[in-house]
Structure formats: C-alpha cells, structure tokens
Design brief:
There is one protein chain. This protein is an alpha/beta fold. It has one domain: 2,3-Dihydroxybiphenyl 1,2-Dioxygenase, domain 1 (Roll), CATH 3.10.180.10. The protein is built from three helices and eight strands. The protein has a four-stranded mixed sheet. Strands 5-8-7-6 form a four-stranded mixed sheet. The chain starts with a strand and ends with a strand. 25% of the residues are buried. The mean pLDDT is 96.
Length: 131
C-alpha cells in the first residue's frame, strides 16, 4: 500500500491553486474537469514531482459536514496538515516574503521547530523541521 494522494478541503479551488503554486512553490500535477465547476486538482512538491499529490478538494462547498469540520479546526487554531521542511526559519522568511501570513512564528518544540500559516482557503497549515 502506498500514499499517492492526500486531500485537503478548500473553499475555492482556483484561489487554492494560486496560493499553493505562487506562494508556496508547489507545481500543478493534475487538473481534470469534473462538472459543475469542480476539478480533480492536485499539486506536488517541486522538489519531488513524482511524490504524493495534494488534492485541493472543494468538499466544503458541497458537503456541509466537511465545511463544519474545516471551520471548527480553523477556529481552534489547529493546523489541518503539516509540510516537512529542512529549515523552518529559512522557509518562514521565504514564505513571509511571498505574502504568506503566519499565526505562529517559528517555535522550538523540543524535537522539532514549527510555524503555522493561513492558506487563505479555510485552513491553518504547519511547516515542521525535525531537529
């Protein structure tokens, strides 16, 4: 068994695509129309183009429980998922320079350093450096 696609809920697929490619530096992998304005839309790490795909899932727009869950996680200040980086401080500076807004600046957590940012599509995301 392999992990190939991981979905995250987004409130606007086009805005999510712009954020994840232009601000974070991911690369669009698949963009397949599904009807009613929805798409099978994935991005991948530029560093690992054949690695796992991140599905920008429009579920909050069509499935109320997904919207409730997404809002509750965001309001609690919890990250929806995490991205591994080699250097949190360096990545924080790069992303801040791209206009990404952080709710938690780089913080030492003992065995890791973390920072949390808003993906502008309904989610908090965390970058993590293992130390």
């Amino acid at each position: 068994m392999k992990i190939k696609v991981v979905g995250i809920p987004v409130q606007d697929q086009e805005r999510a695509l712009t954020f994840y490619t232009e601000k974070l530096g991911f690369v669009k992998k698949q963009d397949i129309p599904l009807g009613e304005g929805n798409r099978w839309l994935t991005v991948v790490s530029a560093e690992e183009p054949d690695g796992p795909e991140l599905l920008l899932e429009p579920a909050p727009n069509h499935f109320e429980p997904a919207k409730v869950y997404q809002n509750a996680v965001k309001e609690a200040g919890m990250p929806y998922t995490q991205f591994r980086v080699d250097d949190v401080q360096k990545e924080y500076e790069r992303l801040s320079g791209n206009g990404v807004e952080f709710s938690m600046k780089p913080t030492d957590m003992g065995t890791s350093k973390v920072a949390i940012f808003d993906d502008t599509c309904g989610n908090n995301m965390m970058i993590v450096e293992m130390v």
